Amino acid sequence: MIEAKTPVVSDPVVLEALKTFTNMINSSTGLSHSSDRSSVTEGLTKLKAAGHHFFPDDLLAGALRLNWKGNAAVELGELAIEINAGKQKRFRKMLRPDIVEVWRAEASSAAPSDQ
CA torsion, points 82, 83, 89, 93, in degrees to nearest 10? Predict the structure, then answer.
């Protein structure tokens, strides 16, 4: 039996990033569109560089909870595995330079029920 975790994504900053990704990507194509994949890759790379840890299975579960399609959530988990493994992924800089600080601010002001 698998026990449900609450919150699904333990780092509230990573959760805010996931919410941003959810609002940015085209839900019908997931990460198959190059600009969507690039934005998410950039975001995960910046989170890791800023010392935030994310677990691929948690991101997958969080994405599903935020109504991502199954394959898109799986792609997100796979991308997280590659980034966590240190694979240098190419991306176009599409996010604002201070995006991690924005996510930190949003996380600190989020109500506990939002997480």
Answer: 150
